[in-house]
Amino acid sequence: MDPKSSKRQVLFLGFLSIAVAGLTVALTDIMGKWPTEFGPWGAAFFLVIGVVLVGQYAGAYTTEDETAVSDAD
Q1: Residue 35 and residue 39: Cα distance in Å, rounded?
Q2: 70 or 13: which carries more pLDDT confidence?
Q3: Average pLDDT value for the chain
Q4: What's the pLDDT score for residue 65?
Q5: What percent helix, strand, coil does the chain show, rounded to 5?
Q6: Residue 30 and residue 19: Cα distance in Å, rounded?
Q7: Which of 3, 12, 17, 57 has the fewest CB atoms within 10 Å, measured from its CB?
């Protein structure tokens, strides 16, 4: 698998998880109650997963940039 497509998939899943957390909160406002039996923990779970995945994506590019600089020396 191409490393770039793998990084894009991680970024996509991260943003998708953050979007699910936001949608859960929005549904709470519309429905007047949490849409799942997990309550606010469901939204928190997806938010944490999203932040971790986006952080891994950012970390992969930071590591790649440092490697490119050290190879140039």
Answers
A1: 7
A2: 13
A3: 79
A4: 55
A5: 85, 0, 15
A6: 16
A7: 3
